[in-house]
Amino acid sequence: xxxxxxxxxxxxxxxxxxxxxxxxxxxxxxxxxxxxxxxxxxxxxxxxxxxxxxxxxxxxxxxxxxxxxxxxxxxxxxxxxxxxxxxxxxxxxxxxxxxxxxxxxxxxxxxxxxxxxxxxxxxxxxxxxxxxxxxxxxxxxx
Length: 142
Fold this sequence. Notes:
disordered N terminus
């Protein structure tokens, strides 16, 4: 009986806190970024940055030493851009909203970050993409 109770609690927790995220493939993400008015000339940079930051996983959450967390496929940080548990920050979003498979709100916030700070906001882009070979997305448009 005790095992059944523990199992019920685990199943209930799994329903409340889904851990499975979507991992975007290169062309699917490129097309989505294009549909969200990201310039095609920059999409390779966006793809590289996303892979460097989150492995293109929508469910990635990283807690940092400064007691903030970064959320989702773009690793949007709670210090400035969103608020935990409520809307807020410069993107006026609940940080947990960036952990879903629907990344349209993530893209809008990432575009705002890029407008304010450029790709240099993302250390993954600086370390793995800046002045380096970028992903080839030419086959994505065929």
